[in-house]
Amino acid sequence: MTDVTDGVLHTLFHSDQGGHEQVVLCQDRASGLKAVIAIHSTALGPALGGTRFYPYASEEEAVADALNLARGMSYKNAMAGLDHGGGKAVIIGDPEKIKTEQLLLAYGRFVASLGGRYVTACDVGTYVADMDVVARECRWTTGRSPEKGGAGDSSVLTAYGVYQGMRASAQHLWGDPSLRGRRIGIAGVGKVGHHLVEHLVAERAEVFVTDVRDEAVRRITEQHRDVVAVKDTEELIRVDGLDIYAPCALGGALDDDSVPALTARIVCGAANNQLAHPGVEKDLADRGILYAPDYVVNAGGVIQVADELHGFDFERCKAKAAKIYDTTLTIFARAKTDGIPPAAAADRIAEQRMAEARRH
To answer: What family is this protein classified in (predicted)?
Structure first.
């Protein structure tokens, strides 16, 4: 990555890395800020995507992550029916060690300098309280607290959307959207996963959970005595008679090792970038496993933060998130018609919407 000077934006074009419109490198030496803002597309409207705060091993790794995540947001926003393109920002460093008010304010100034082309929100390593700070310097900030005019925690609607995706998957595969009695395994019961458990328990599904944090699992099993804790993801995906597997933690959960071991007939979870590499979607299809594309079913959160720009209304957002059910069924139908995996069908529909917007 080219070094940058205080307060200077360097704009790069990466046509060979997904056709991104703009990549901005940000540095503020006074606060220690080093960040990357990637704008993949503004065909449908201002780019919208969260801010990831993470200790990347290198600046090149940070740029690559920003590019991949921004592209994913273009597809997610298109499939969610939002009038937004895709963007993402990453702040380089350990948030536990370097996150300060001064750094967040400096970051807010960089986002503001883009004049509304990029709208930011929370992501890994950033929270509602952080967005409240960023918003002091940048009006194109979402994911703020209700006290500051925002929607607060977006994990509630993210989980609700995943739940709707599960119901649609059940309808497509078994002819009935009910999850009652279905055996469902959730890997990761943090912000989103624990809300998802609530929906499934309410519908009387048989729920199995695992998480790298013992306290997260303990909290769930203390609240819901019928939920079964398993040791790790490797054990979870092998649970006998599992109907649905829900990856709700880190990306890359579906790879050359996990896919052959899956006992579930459906994969539908909240994690981003679940497919470890191209071709995994075909491996799932070849095994007869129905995959609900991650960026489609986990769009409840972005639906919520986008609504902040118009004056947040929870019921309006919930109604939009409920449509994830219909969108998921549409994708499965397109996949069947075109003879392709659902992930490819979702990409085609999203690309079609973006292409049509460019022509107008």
So the answer is: Belongs to the Glu/Leu/Phe/Val dehydrogenases family.
